[in-house]
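Hey, sorry to bother you again with one of my protein questions. There's a protein on my desk that I can't quite get my head around. No rush at all, and the record is pasted right below.
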Amino acid sequence: MKPIRCSIWIAAVVFTMAIGIAATSAAAETLKSLIAGAKNEKHLKLTLHFIKQEHVQKLETAFNNRYGLDIKLEANLSGKYSSKAKKGVEQYRQGAKPSFDVMVLNESAFATLANADALARIEDWENLLPEGADSSVSPGPIAGVGFKSFDFYFGYSYRSDRLAASMLPLSIKDLANASLKGKAAVSKYTTNLTYAVMKYSPEELLNIAEAWRQNGVKRFHPRKMPEQVALGKFVVGGFHTTAQYLGAGQEGGGNFKMGLFSDIVPHAVLLHAVRKGAVSPNAAKLFVLWMTGKEALSICGEGTYLGNTLNNGNQKAIAIAEQLMKKGNVKPTSFFDSKENYQKLVWLGTAEGQNFTKRFGAAIKGKK
């Protein structure tokens, strides 16, 4: 290496190291500032995906120990993501105090709040992530605003003793096959079904919904539907997650199985986000970041099937999905995979998108 080139190379290395040191130093100061602010905050009101109350207490203890705080977690575990998001938008537009500093959100609820600019961004988040997390927890379209904790993969369950392998549904359209007339079910939550806009146009989905209705497809809560299939009340039930499949128990014994559609395998996530105007903003930001890491998610995975693709929490449901995807040679699709998919999620949160969701549900029910 010639002297001049060597000098340039050394200078580049030193410059890169300096940037890294500066970033680390800035992150340390940001973290120090958040912790200092959080020490003046005593309560953190939040919504969480359903876990046992004893695990909420464990989260509180571990969170406080991690950052040297004395924060009381006031957790709402009742779900109802969409209605809470809509109320959050109303509060933000009225300038009212938010009911929750931190909210757990599915994609549609996130879009509702994000479209209204009601969520706060966490600055320098990439350098503040805990052990077990990387930049994938806050993907491009929502970077710094939404932070992923849990991954879910949607498919269907079926009774292999009542449905031959040759008759398994290859696509969501196949739930309208004559062989399944009156023997199939789908989620009662239309928002679960609208993940399919990543594959089909709204017009195509309305036609699919109408075909389901004509074939006598029933609708159930996604946690209860696998139970109905396991008990033999239906041959196949679509659009529930591998976690919900596991939670249904094994009433069907070895005949109760899980499958994935080949046309669309929704990769759903649950995100945590900080509300603008949070009463405890520092603790809120610390908690949202912490909930992406190994320590917090290991607690959430106790006694549940909650896990994520970074190997945190309970991995059984994730493992089943990965095995099925490999077996079927199919790939999952997320609203956060691309700008194009994200714009479809944004559209679902608009008045036009919400009107489509209502029409889609009505088409399945046979109502106008």
